[in-house]
Amino acid sequence: MAYAHLLVPTDGSEASQKAVIQAVELARSLGSRITLLHVRENVALALVGMGEMVEPTTIETLLQAARDDSTRILAEARAVAEQAGVPVTTESSSGDGVHSIILEAVERFGCDLIVMASHGRRGLISLLLGSETQRVLVQAPCPVLVVR
Question: What pTM was estimated for this model as a whole?
Answer without folding.
Answer: 0.87
